């Protein structure tokens, strides 16, 4: 009997093909569906609710001739993901539930469940690859980008550690999405033509404002427009000409602009600053401006939304960001920066963003990431991930 692998069957095409490939390679494969959510009131019923997904996962398992179980992880999901999301939004930060779900659920509780069932590995349908090297007599695992650059999901796994990687398999990481669909079609899997889920991790498509309104009560406040020529932008962050300028300016390069109602004019009203995020355009309900309004800052304490006209507004861009020491995570612990050292990397601050050249600087209070070019919509609470070539080295929560 081959090694036992428990696949997180989500009811989508990617995990279906992952299970098929592992069985083909000779592994003993078991399909496990994670039920993480019970509240149907905020899910959009025709966009892959968990029940349909569970049925599809069961049909795939039957087709492949592998055992199938459903595991209810809704309690830990609520505690570790949902409650965390509410707290972050309430504090004016924007969490990434997919990154959290992988760290806290799939590669923690789900992994533990699988190991208790005698598994040697767990597998998922993520578009990423795992590598390994020998270093100082130890095996070091590498998290590599998926071959399909349009689907690369390494960012979502940026919080994994060496132990979690050692137990993980990513069977479709070396394939392109059309190849995955073709395999599913050739094997007559029910998920072959199923749309990719755009919802919260293993929850389904969720109306986020309604989801947040369950616990964050509506609270009317002002929408203030800040002009692009506001004096607040006079100390232009991008005027750093050499390395010493950067080193002398780490704090100012990474600091968010501090807005005040007097800096602009009231152009509308909103139902709660905690429902919005930096860079957002839709949902403001303010028209009549030459260019669309974008959110440049959310003040949840005073319940004010600050906005600017157009996607080139100066308030949308910053040259750098900061990660507190407690929020720094190295996948490659062996490459962790020492105090007062720096490293040239490429980094992204959101999924599917192109990698951007940057320098990371480790200082006593945390990690400063300074990009070659100003970045749009740097958002507190989101994750930044840094890479060298196609390997994800580490990540952190943006302060």
String of helices and strands = EHEHEHHEEEHEHHEHHEEEEEEEEEE
> CATH class of the largest domain, please?
Alpha Beta
Measured by DSSP, the beta-strand proportion falls in 25-35%
* CATH-defined architecture of the largest domain: 3-Layer(aba) Sandwich
In total, the number of strands is 18
Secondary structure category:
alpha/beta
Give the CATH H-level superfamily of the largest domain: HUPs
What integer value in Å does the Rg equal? Answer: 22 Å
Salient structural properties:
399 residues, alpha/beta, Rossmann fold, SH3 type barrels, Elongation Factor Tu (Ef-tu), domain 3, 9-stranded antiparallel sheet, 5-stranded parallel sheet, 9 helices, 18 strands
Give a description of the structure.
With 399 residues, the chain is an alpha/beta fold. The chain folds into 3 domains: 4-211, HUPs (Rossmann fold, 3-Layer(aba) Sandwich), CATH 3.40.50.620; 221-315, Adenine nucleotide alpha hydrolases-like domains (SH3 type barrels), CATH 2.30.30.280; 317-397, Translation factors (Elongation Factor Tu (Ef-tu), domain 3), CATH 2.40.30. The protein contains 9 helices and 18 strands. The strands form 3 sheets. Strands 5, 6, 12, 13, 14, 15, 16, 17 and 18 form a 9-stranded antiparallel sheet that branches. Strand 5 and strand 6 form a beta hairpin. Helix 1 (13-24) packs parallel to helix 2 (50-64), helix 1 packs across helix 6 and helix 3 (74-90) runs antiparallel to helix 4. It is globular and about 65 Å long. The protein starts with a strand and ends with a strand.
Describe the secondary structure blueprint for this structure.
Blueprint: E1 4-8, H1 13-24, E2 28-35, H2 50-64, E3 68-72, H3 74-90, H4 97-116, E4 121-123, E5 128-135, E6 138-145, H5 162-166, E7 168-169, H6 177-186, H7 208-213, E8 221-225, H8 243-248, H9 250-254, E9 265-270, E10 293-299, E11 304-309, E12 317-324, E13 328-330, E14 342-348, E15 356-363, E16 366-376, E17 383-388, E18 391-397
Parallel strand pairs: 1-2, 1-4, 2-3, 4-7, 8-11
Antiparallel strand pairs: 5-6, 6-18, 8-9, 10-11, 12-16, 13-18, 14-15, 14-17, 15-16, 17-18
Helix pairs in contact: 1-2, 1-6, 3-4
